[in-house]
Amino acid sequence: QRGDLGAAIRGRVGREPSIDLLEAFVEHWKGITHYYIESTDENTPAKKTDIPWRLKQMLDILVYEERQQTAAGEAGPCLEYLLQHKILETLCTLGKAEYPPGMRQQVFQFFSKVLAQVQHPLLHYLNVHRPVQKLLRLGGTVPGSQTEKEEVQFTTVLCSKIQQDPALLTYILEVRGSRYSEPTTLPREAASIQDKDRSHSKAADVSACAAQALSTQPPAEMEEPDGRAGESNLIASLIGLCKSKKGRVALRAQENLLLLVSVASPAAATYLVQSSPCCPAVVEHLCQLYQSVPAFLDPADIATLEGVSWRLPSAPSDEASFPGKEALAAFLGWFDYCDHLITEAHTVVADALAKAVAEKLFVEILQPHLLHVSEQSVLTSTALLTAMLRQLRSPALLREAVAFLLGTDPQPAAPDDGPRTLCAHLIGHCDHLSDEISIATLRLFEELLQKPHEQVIRGLVLCNLEGRHYVARGSPEPESYEDTLDLEEDPYFTDGFLNSSFQPSAKPPPAPATNSDGKTAVTEIVNSFLCLVPEEAKTSAFLEETGYDTYVHDAYGLFQECSSRVAPWGWPLGPTPLDPHEPERPFFEGHFLRMLFDRMSRILEQPYSLNLQVTSVLSRLALFPHPLIHEYLLDPYINLAPGCRSLFSVLVRVIGDLMQRIQRVPQFPGKLLLVRKQLMGQVPGEQLDHQTLLQGVVVLEEFCKELAAIAFVKFPPHGPHLHLSPPREGHV
């Protein structure tokens, strides 16, 4: 029956608006404080008392008063009363006491609505700043709090105010409040209606209220934190809410923290890094989530969670379930969030957070796992690192990840260098006794090669190719294809081999045609790769799905993507001309290329899945539009220096080995075709003799077509990067 007293007051504003509003405001506040004097039932929830209604009336009065103010930016009598009598401080104390039950929720809601609906700047006042800080300390610290929804709404309002006025961020983060102003006198309108009785009554009410609140809590719990340096209540509250089990609460808290770091000024950014728990807390949670991921995860299961987003960290429901799936999704979701924080944050915060991730997660946790004697530990940590790289987008974190994996200043390696660095150990893992570890580590490098950071390709490959010491100095250009390959000196290419019933798929082409700039014509390069595998070892002609056209189409898209990624690096269009008088120097392709060439030379002896991964990494390398990479990996006609090998020379030796092996396999063509159909799922799989060899031959044929397609799209006959129809398979 009491009705809306605020509305009634608004109806009488025509007579004495200031007096009526202030009297009503004080009456409602006295009604709240009297509750603590008169009430004897400690179990009645706050929402069943008149406290929520009175708080709403007080809010309505403040909002209405502000709308009636004639002088913009001037605080009205009711607002001045709220500030002068420290009403927010008292409410905060009542909320902390949680008396009556549910009072904390009411206080959070009142604070949020006052800050959101009152347009007058409030956060600069000490009597607002101090209770705001105390209220922040009440929330976000205990997981599963009953007031999480109200807490995150409160922080959302604060962050919205900071977004409107970024200069507030530094003030909000500081906890001492020394820079804040406190009104010392009430405006004349309010002062004119003050009387001693009301002041004495108010003082008595507040004292009774505080006494009642204090009696409900142990003394230790009521002691306020001292605001020591380094404590930032807003950041701590947001970090705590980010860990909430309630998805919407956690998401809103993460959005709020993201907003803070993105609007930070240089001063606020420095404070965030030096005097707040922002970076340590974010990274600590990341490390905790990593530690909660089971150590026995299958790399294939980890790969199924590709693209987990911080906005939707839970794993897709349509994916197959496996033990540890939720823990993995939580970790990858938070890692994605860290990546977004670093992307959006001020440079000072981004660099500090990226370094913290590198130090705490990469170096202190991940590196020991990568170097562990346990194969399972190595396997899982490598697959997790690959998943992280796949999601990584921020330049600052990518820089730290590359420095972690490759070092800060990679130098050309020597053949006898031991594995002193993490990179050297990882390259060694690519040639591990465990095929699973080899495949997982090769996938890691393939993912790394797709990142937009020049240091990756330079540290792994280019630093060893610079100087072109793989090219013979002072020797005449080869006159024929046979001279280029030194067939007469290759033990696999003996007279008996060349006169055998198995002949290459085409006669050796004539001396390679060259363009006006001296480069080998692309048609000759493409033909060299397409004709490398003998006809007897080819089976793709029987199956339309594996034609050369498909490789050209795929290679074109991948090459365009790679070219756009490396365009800012300013690579030269052609290799540096050789000085014919320069003496030859020993050439070493580097540990990475040596490992790949060694693996490639064993393609006929390795498992099918391992061969696929080796050729996939080599294809990624061949796509880079750098003249040295093109020359070393894709030009069959370079005149190699003594003792040097190129990708093509490795393939030639593999073909020589193949021609000797297949003579010992009965019904080789038929078995080879059957194996190809098995690999494509056209016929049921069954174990065959020489199955590893036959599968290796299939991979070899497809890899040669893939290299031909890459060469074609990189340097088409009529100029680079043109849309051209691919040549018919077998020749250009």
TrEMBL record:
Domain spans labelled FHF complex subunit HOOK-interacting protein C-terminal: 589-681
UniProt cross-references to InterPro entries, sorted A to Z: FHIP (IPR019384), FHIP_C (IPR045669), FHIP_KELAA_motif (IPR045668)
Record family assignment: Belongs to the FHIP family.
Lineage: Eukaryota, Metazoa, Chordata, Craniata, Vertebrata
Domain of life: Eukaryota
Protein name per the record: Family with sequence similarity 160 member B2
Annotated organism of origin: Ursus maritimus (Polar bear)
